[in-house]
Amino acid sequence: MSSEQVNSPQPSAAETSNSPSTNSQVPVESDPVVREQVKKRRTFAIISHPDAGKTTLTEKLLLYSGYLNVAGSVRARKNQRAVTSDWMAMERERGISITSTVLNINFQGFQINLLDTPGHQDFSEDTYRTLTAADCAVMVIDAAKGIEAQTEKLFKVCALRKIPILTFINKMDRPGREPLQLLGEIEEVLGIGAAPLNWPIGSGTDFQGVYDRLKKQVNLFEPVAHGSLMVPTKVETLDAESSALDPDLRKKLRDEIELLDGAGASFDRDKFLRAEVTPVFFGSALTNFGIEPFLSAFLELSPPPGARDSDKGPIPADRSQFAGFIFKIQANMDPRHRDRIAFVRVCSGRFVRDMSVQHVQSGESIRISRSHRLFANNRESMDEAYPGDIIGIVNPGGFHLGDTLCEGKPFQYKGMPQFSPEHFAILSCNETLRRKQFVKGIDQLVEEGAIQILNDPNAFRKEPILAAVGQLQFEVVQYRLEAEYGAKTSIQKLPYSLARWVEGTPEDLEALQLPTSAMKTLDRENHVVALFGGKWELEYCMKQNPKLEFKTVR
Ligand code: G4P
């Protein structure tokens, strides 16, 4: 644990990134209306290992914000009792969440946008992309399990972008690890300071409340049936005369707090905003213990949308002209509509429906008349949006992941991360008569980023080679091709686990020598991608071809 003590959080220097930047080559004057809206926005995602309690925590954050009905549907969505589309049935069968949605919560004057991310590791690419649209993240950890593989992976993506992270240590109502041990693990495994802003009182069946180190308050919770209601909280000081707290637990708590307070420096919000320290909270999403303190700390600590990097310098959020980027594309979200939705994260200015914007990558001007707010299969028209908001717009074709839409002088936001595939398979269409639908389906799934496609330049029949980060992506592609495009397919797995984009002069590329066990393929833009069975083969090949570069991403 870092030697952090707590002081009340103050607005920070790192948050003033909205002030106009002298580096920017596009107009950046601050607009007072946009500035006010930006202050109210909080856009975040929850990262966790499957089963750590992300769905339950989401549900409880909704319950505490007064969104009882929506809270129920989050669980229903996970359990897939209320699915309406066939494709969603696959989620139900597997009990995992494949698609991501956005929840909009109005609470205490804040407009909170919660980006839901699939927990399954095979969809990490989708999650990574969604994280590019978030301004901060909440990391949920199971108190009995500590840092698990998927949490670590997702944490690394946040660290790459330096997204501030709040940590919620969940399931304190069950026997778990010692809090100090958990804090130590966060610091050791993730390499980030861990500052406990509250501290659990008791654990397992004896978990009674949390001590708020900022307010120096003991919060004791009363259990309610099945955690379906907000828990009544009794607030007292650590030295309260007539305490409801068992004297032994009180003594233990006092000793622990003394130890923590004696450890040194104060909680530094700037360090949190720079992703150097994570404030840690303890609780139980199931019983609602600790949800309220966590929610209020979240509103106090989490940053509003800030400036984002572009090829023309950082673009502040609070200028008047609209700009945003596409972080997700999804076809056939709802079979009743059968259209493709591009999810746009608004990063600057004001969006109004029917406005004309420039699609920077194609140079075309596009009027956005169909803009939606989306939750699962429900969509409603969205007439206005501000930085931090997510709008779903009907993709006229031509939109790709990472593209920028903007008003005024064009610029491009920094690109999306792309991940090197690790699973490969040849996909064939079973019925010649459905070939057209098969090709259309593949095109749209590639556009969504659901899968990457390669092809074998030497093959007689040009069947696509699917390249995926996670194995399950193959099954989703096959399932969706059949359910949405009527094309039954067969799959033949290939024995490779590494892909490298090969770069060099045309002559050197022509002279490329691959081990017989490797395979040369081309991506959609005809760049050479070599597939290898393992690291050893790759290293051997690199030695054989010293003039060429072998890159994990292009
Ligand atoms: P996920 O979205 O991260 O995958 O996890 P989810 O919230 O679905 O939680 C996974 C399981 O852990 C669920 O149990 C859930 O009830 C339980 N859980 C979540 N938070 C807590 C907590 O604070 N304490 C305890 N004791 N359990 C918690 P399940 O049996 O798999 O599902 P269900 O039958 O409860 O829906």
Question: How would you characterize this protein structure?
Answer:
It is a single chain. It contains 14 helices and 29 strands. 27% of the residues lie in helices and 26% in strands. The chain is globular, with a radius of gyration of 25 Å. Strands 16-15-21-12-13-20-17-18 form an 8-stranded antiparallel sheet. A 7-stranded mixed sheet has the order 2-3-1-4-5-11-6, with helices on both faces. It has a 4-stranded antiparallel sheet with strand order 7-8-9-10, covered by helices on one side. It has 554 residues and is of the alpha+beta class. The structure holds guanosine-5',3'-tetraphosphate.
Short description:
With 554 residues, this protein is of the alpha+beta class. It contains 14 helices and 29 strands.
List keywords for this structure.
alpha+beta, binds guanosine-5',3'-tetraphosphate
SSE layout and pairing:
Blueprint: H1 32-40, E1 41-48, H2 54-64, H3 68-79, H4 86-94, E2 102-107, E3 110-115, H5 124-131, E4 136-142, H6 149-161, E5 165-170, H7 179-190, E6 193-196, E7 198-201, E8 209-212, E9 217-221, E10 233-236, H8 247-262, H9 269-273, E11 277-282, H10 291-301, E12 323-331, E13 340-348, E14 351-352, E15 356-359, E16 364-367, E17 371-375, E18 378-381, E19 384-385, E20 390-394, E21 404-406, E22 423-429, H11 435-448, E23 452-454, E24 465-468, H12 472-485, E25 489-494, E26 498-503, H13 506-510, E27 519-522, E28 528-532, H14 535-544, E29 549-551
Parallel strand pairs: 1-3, 1-4, 4-5, 5-11, 6-11
Antiparallel strand pairs: 2-3, 7-8, 8-9, 9-10, 12-13, 12-21, 13-20, 14-19, 15-16, 15-21, 17-18, 17-20, 22-24, 22-25, 23-24, 26-28, 26-29, 27-28
The protein binds guanosine-5',3'-tetraphosphate.
The site of guanosine-5',3'-tetraphosphate has 17 residues, from helix 2.
